[in-house]
Amino acid sequence: MTVFRPRATLASLALWAPLALAACGGGTAGGGGAGATPSGDILSLMQARGLSEADVSAALMTYTPTGKHDEYLTFASGGHGGQLLVIGVPSMRIIKYVGVFTPEPWQGYATGDVATERVLDGGNRFGKRVEWGDMHHPALSETGGDYDGQFIFVGDKANARVAVVGLSDFMTRQIVTSELIQSDHGAAFVTPNTDYVIETSQYPAPLGGGYAPIEEFNEKYRGAAIFWKFDRQRGRIDPTASWAIELPPYMQDLADAGKLVSDGWAFMNSVNSERSYGGNLEGRPSLESGASQGDMDYLHCINWRKAEELVKAGRTTTIVGMKVISLEVAAAEGVLFFVPEPKSPHGVDITPDGKDIVVGGKLDTHATVFSFEKIAALASAKKFVGKDPYGVPILDFKESIRGQCEIGLGPLHTQFDGNGFAYTSVFIESVVAKWSLKDLKVVHKLPMHYNIGHLCAAEGDTVSPDGKYLIGMNKWAMDRFSPVGPLLPQNFQLIDISGAGDMNLLYDMPIPLGEPHYAQMIKADKIKAIEYYTPVGTNPITHEKDPNATLAKQERIERRADGVHVWMTAVRSHFTPDTIRVKEGETVHLHITSVEQAFDATHGFALGSYDINLSIEPGRHCDVTFVADRAGVFPYYCTEFCSALHLEMAGYLLVEPKS
Amino acid sequence: MTVFRPRATLASLALWAPLALAACGGGTAGGGGAGATPSGDILSLMQARGLSEADVSAALMTYTPTGKHDEYLTFASGGHGGQLLVIGVPSMRIIKYVGVFTPEPWQGYATGDVATERVLDGGNRFGKRVEWGDMHHPALSETGGDYDGQFIFVGDKANARVAVVGLSDFMTRQIVTSELIQSDHGAAFVTPNTDYVIETSQYPAPLGGGYAPIEEFNEKYRGAAIFWKFDRQRGRIDPTASWAIELPPYMQDLADAGKLVSDGWAFMNSVNSERSYGGNLEGRPSLESGASQGDMDYLHCINWRKAEELVKAGRTTTIVGMKVISLEVAAAEGVLFFVPEPKSPHGVDITPDGKDIVVGGKLDTHATVFSFEKIAALASAKKFVGKDPYGVPILDFKESIRGQCEIGLGPLHTQFDGNGFAYTSVFIESVVAKWSLKDLKVVHKLPMHYNIGHLCAAEGDTVSPDGKYLIGMNKWAMDRFSPVGPLLPQNFQLIDISGAGDMNLLYDMPIPLGEPHYAQMIKADKIKAIEYYTPVGTNPITHEKDPNATLAKQERIERRADGVHVWMTAVRSHFTPDTIRVKEGETVHLHITSVEQAFDATHGFALGSYDINLSIEPGRHCDVTFVADRAGVFPYYCTEFCSALHLEMAGYLLVEPKS
Description:
2 copies of one chain form a homodimer.
Chain A: H1 10-14, H2 16-23, H3 42-49, H4 53-62, E1 72-77, E2 83-89, E3 93-99, H5 114-121, E4 139-143, E5 146-156, E6 161-166, E7 171-177, E8 184-190, E9 196-201, H6 217-220, E10 223-231, E11 236-237, E12 243-247, E13 252-257, E14 265-270, H7 287-290, E15 296-303, H8 304-312, E16 317-319, E17 322-325, H9 327-332, E18 336-342, E19 345-350, E20 356-361, E21 366-371, H10 372-380, E22 386-387, E23 393-394, H11 397-400, E24 401-406, E25 411-416, E26 421-426, E27 431-436, E28 442-447, E29 452-458, E30 467-474, E31 490-497, E32 504-511, E33 519-523, E34 538-539, E35 544-545, E36 556-560, E37 563-571, E38 574-576, E39 579-583, E40 587-594, E41 603-607, E42 612-616, E43 621-627, E44 632-637, E45 650-656
Parallel strand pairs in A: 12-17, 37-40, 39-45
Antiparallel strand pairs in A: 1-2, 1-33, 2-3, 4-5, 5-6, 6-7, 8-9, 9-10, 10-11, 10-12, 13-14, 14-15, 15-18, 16-17, 19-20, 20-21, 21-24, 22-23, 25-26, 26-27, 27-28, 29-30, 30-31, 31-32, 34-35, 36-37, 37-38, 40-43, 41-42, 41-44, 44-45
């Protein structure tokens, strides 16, 4: 705790007292302001709360009064929570968790609702449902290299899945997966016009999900980079138009797409060119030591526009339904090049002008700045220093770089402002380093608490970053917040980078659920979210009026060959019908439409003991199908507080026993 | 947005400029403070951010610098998200979501981990898993009527379940359910020494889960109040020592336990003494109108200590394993009394001195203050004005009350400070009313945005409330935050109630996941959370060393009759073993112990495509059992960032195909 120390300047603080007291005379703080402590003046308030003078500035830079909106929204991955976080900046308030890879009952996401169950089923692996994900990297859709606020894509490292979330309603619309690969890490990253969403594998395995002994690792295990084709008009990835490139069994890590001058290329790190595969109970080294032997790994440079031509020309092999450009073809046709990069790198980040590729070697002390122009020239001239064991041409390290910045131990990930500065997280040193892109010199280091992972700057991955705010995504919180048991939150630290000089720490924010690995920050006014679904009866996945949409007076119950169909409406504060009579063993199909068209007038629908909960936002249509396999009396009711008579918004499912 | 208007007092603000600029000269904001905007002074900062002078006070009352802890922790229910929120006050940062009724992969809660899967299975209904819950009312454990910081109990309205969460490690230890009832609402509430956890049903149904036609509602449908016996020593509810009281088919609502003078009694509202049961497609009124016909419902007064004697004396009937005191016995033996209460009430709240029972009639304009002394005297003298249709004696309304406070339209729920004031949320008027318990007069109303539900005051349900902070739990957020689609957060508004006069609004906080219905706020230093599990190999549910705990050098793989057993350790940054070879179809038992004993050094364990993720906090032991039914190569890895070589903390499950 900072102890306030009286000094000469306190005289000026004392002048605030009458001002603050006058301001809180009004009492009711309606639309805008808020009240002061009735018991004292500003100075005593600072003393009572242990605030330093510098804290006052930080408080004013982050405090967001009632009704005032945040300037930016940050989309952070939820790690192994499987959900996506939406965070307001500078208030650092979490505004929403969006269910993506994990069923989420508050949103009625895959907890009975047929449409969203189908979305989650899109990510089934080997025919089976996976009910969690390890979300790593969110990528906002781009137009011309700038975030356009329409979609966001996220990857699931554990199960090699990619999801599409629509930002008109913040709903997960699609999950795709290919059993070509068994895990990913470099996902999702988009090309500058969102033609493709990139997913690269992390842990090598036989392509397509087959078995091979681990001793045949070098020969039969492979990595791959999948280029998922995005159809912006439909708001969907088109798996049939997607394709992949086979890669050596190194652990491919993060990716980034070229932009402007480097548009048409993509870049990926790798961290285990040693091809270690563990075996610590069988006499081999653990992966952590096996993969850290060499001083260099391989930066993967992919000419994806040339690859796209090869795909069109049919130069692919199809594996588990995915068109794959083989290593041999990729190497021979000038699609894939390697450049040595120091040591076990993590982040690979293209500068806003598209000219440089910044790589942080996590067991190194440098941010290495590769030059796209040099790489392209060497590739074009076929000036190689050799080939890797799989025939991939290797470019000379020194001839490929513009230089290196001496950063500190453990550089991980780099973001940019609009003023020529780069910001690199330094894990082992636990700082953010601000450095000049022009002369590759560090100008300031700011301590982070603790163990910083990625960074997120305002519009930081675009061709025109805003600067202003930077978030340090710290992996450990330790003593930063009140103790809540052995499992602790992460700590997002908000940093002011608006000035030309030093960075300033503004705020600590605990992440209460999930472990974000990466985030992107967009100007809030670029997001055009709808207030309700229209027309009444809209299916939130198709965004069309559902065939079973039900309007007032159309409610009915019909017995058909496939079971009992109930066309139901929800409106404050009743469901119609509120009595459903079925026989034990019958299949029941509920078609429920909210006929509300008012902002925030959401209803829920819970059916006790049947494991069903829906969120029915205004105008939304939901379907549920279940077998009434338990005789008895089952209340259903609205789970989202809607009105003074919300508790009375209920009905009964009556399941008569078989005679 | 508040527009800053220059006025005479700005001269005093200007004096801050050099002070603030001096404060931020240091640059690196390490342990305590934070920097100011480099571009200007405090005044220009206020102008730039549109802050009023009053906002400055609010900012300073809520701003919590890096590393400083919150004074209070608020535990809020997560509604139909099924999770429990832990919120710091006054910073209004969510520090943790605790998985309770819904599987949660970040915590490894019921996503493969055998111990927590069993906890969730404790809440199975009719033999089937329910994977979500509608959490309504958290109740902190009490000793002598004060929160003791040891446990918290929560109810699941949809599936009539109650959970026990331990506050040493913030883990859900137990879920209990009785098929006696089909839903609850008045859950959980504790008696002053946590002898019992109270759960009352909401929607009447035949007791025990049987079927009866809805036309036999009056005769065969019933409510019930379950008194779950808590064994503090074991930290578990003991179902065999628990019992229930049969209640009429009114919709019992919230409950509260008497304290001090009223200790030994419990009080519950009801909202449908009309016994309406819907049927709007069958010619009957919807519940919302049917249940709102009468002007009075029944406050249920239960002498639970007398009921406990009846249970010991064997005066119960056993239904689906639950000992039940019948309505007839309860009415005849002086256990159950009714007092009329106006109209469709919601909150029933005992004053800190235990003398009064405050009821908010949600379709009324009063907070009605019942006197325990008067009720007990009338009950003792058997002075009844009649009986309800089920034979329950009714006391006279006017003779039972101390008075009524004219509050406004739609009073819902009441909290207390330590200075003789009550605070009632008023839903339809959308305000908080502060009123004097002594003379029953409103002294101030503060507008809420929007549709306020419950209130939560610092230590507000104890015998010694702290005052200071009050949270308005607003149901709708509307325009308060950046738009995030049709489904919006709730809005918790933090209110300063430290003064003798008006309340002051301090802060708006979005709830990003789930819909809290109630919360309790405890002094943070009462919580004694552990930093890691000790000894190494502790099972977090039993809190004992697990029989399969594995230390370094004890790692091994054995084939047994029931499958392949793998005793594994996790430590930065490898699993041992990191190669597991099995045959397709074999059952695999993983026994994984984290041998870490360092704060925050948590590991995860993900097995791709097998739908398994664990959280292995330092010292924790986890078990997983699965059938290796898919041949192939499946990476497993650490999902919780642990070190610079976290990505390399991985291994392979090799599933050889059947020959």
